[in-house]
Design goal:
The protein is an alpha/beta fold and 413 residues long. Strands 5-2-1-9-20 form a 5-stranded parallel sheet, with helices on one face. The protein has a 5-stranded parallel sheet with strand order 11-18-12-13-14. A 3-stranded antiparallel sheet has the order 6-7-8. The longest helix has 19 residues.
């Protein structure tokens, strides 16, 4: 029997296990998933925990609930991949073999990469919200915080869910307003980007929102170190931004296993060189990469992994049958952006087309509006949690096109 081995049981790995189980002959192929953590986290929900919108228990469930019984699920840590031998070495010394390897090991924040970030103020006056521990600790901090200078800082631009820092900033504005202390809180959004986002039309709209909400944007700020004693961020060109409470989005890196296996890209961030259209490893023919583990120039977001899974399933079937790859990933991403006070906006884009205004997913009727702040978009964001647990992880088809559609979008002449 031939073997497909999936490293990682986060969203991308779980979806692939479910899709491949439905697509392959069970008498010919055995599917195994390896992951070191028994808990599956609904990571988009981390954003809501500091503001009391979600409770911690809303975002965590056992991974085994979403891995089919017909799939072997191994709860162990991977030491490294030995691609030349089609082997994976686990940390306990066990060696697994494969015919096809799918790497879905994701990305993690690494605050240690920035001098002083994980210093004496870590989880006292400096927090992250991209981890379960970070977001739950930040929630407790905000319960009793009485105001001051709140700084939201991106240490790097290559991060998981690029819109989440913006959402946190807008939700903080609403949270402190509703608590009656917004006049006691200065909010600063400090970013290496030249504006609020990477795409021009979305940046213009988001910058306008920042101005309306009296949020100060500090652009082109490349963080070098954090001075814990003075409570100051210091950039490479010696600019300084003081803080009373710092919410950091640290440097993101791929799994340490990637470095141990010498499979990472040249910049040392442990992302795997991947064909941006086929999702095949650029170095190893029988290795495929999905989700945040890739170095493709798409957002590291759940929607991207979902669309990639559709493409990758088709391409693995083509590979097995000795056929050329016909499915091609176009970089499609769509993201709700919470803007506070029960409203949100929505962006939809790919490798070549920036976010545009219009209706989504259906022309004329929507019901979602692109690049417009609405109540419906917020309800869509909240509804996605149910969709995630009950449809997305289990590999069911969603009513959204895999490739970005221009239906409903308004294009300026």
């Amino acid at each position: 029997m031939k073997k497909i081995l999936i490293l990682g049981a986060g969203m991308a790995g779980t979806v692939m296990a479910n899709k491949l189980l439905l697509s392959l002959n069970k008498n010919l192929w055995e599917i195994t998933v390896v992951d070191k953590d028994e808990n599956h986290y609904y990571q988009p929900g981390f954003l809501f925990i500091p503001f009391g919108i979600y409770d911690p228990e809303d975002v965590v469930k056992p991974k085994k609930e979403f891995i089919p019984k017909e799939v072997n699920f191994i709860l162990k840590e991977v030491q490294k991949v030995i691609p030349e031998n089609n082997q994976v070495l686990l940390k306990d010394g066990v060696v697994l073999t494969y015919d096809i390897l799918i790497v879905a090991t994701g990305t993690v924040p690494v605050p240690e990469e920035t001098e002083g970030l994980k210093g004496e103020l870590w989880y006292k006056d400096i927090f992250d919200f991209y981890t379960y521990e970070g977001t739950t600790r930040l929630a407790k901090k905000l319960e009793n915080w009485q105001g001051g200078r709140l700084v939201i800082n991106l240490a790097e631009t290559l991060i998981k869910c690029p819109v989440a820092p913006l959402e946190f900033t807008f939700l903080a504005d609403a949270y402190f307003t509703e608590k009656g202390i917004r006049d006691k809180v200065e909010i600063f959004y400090v970013t290496p980007l030249s504006g609020a986002f990477t795409k021009p039309k979305a940046t213009a709209m988001l910058n306008k929102l920042m101005d309306e909400k009296n949020i100060h944007v500090v652009p082109d700020f490349y963080l070098q170190r954090v001075d814990n004693e003075r409570k100051v961020l210091i950039s490479y060109d010696e600019k300084e931004v003081p803080f009373d409470l710092l919410v950091s989005i640290p440097v993101n890196k791929g799994d340490q296993m990637v470095e141990e296996s010498n499979m990472g890209d040249e910049d040392g961030l442990n992302f795997i060189p991947t064909n941006k259209n086929t999702l095949q490893s650029k170095k190893y023919e029988n290795m495929f990469v999905i989700g945040d583990a890739t170095n493709v120039p798409a957002s590291k977001a759940g929607s991207v992994a979902h669309f990639e899974a559709e493409i990758l399933t088709e391409n693995i079937l083509s590979y097995i049958n000795g056929l050329p790859f016909e499915a091609s990933f176009d970089g499609h991403a769509n993201c709700f952006i919470e803007t506070g006070f029960g409203k949100a906006t929505l962006i939809d884009f790919n490798y070549t087309t920036e976010p545009l205004p219009g209706k989504f997913p259906f022309a004329m009727v929507g019901p979602m509006d692109l690049l417009k702040v609405t109540r419906a978009n917020h309800m869509g964001k909240l509804a996605f949690k149910w969709v995630y647990w009950h449809m997305l992880l289990t590999g069911k088809k969603l009513p959204v096109t895999t490739h970005m559609s221009m239906t409903g979008k308004l294009v300026e002449n």
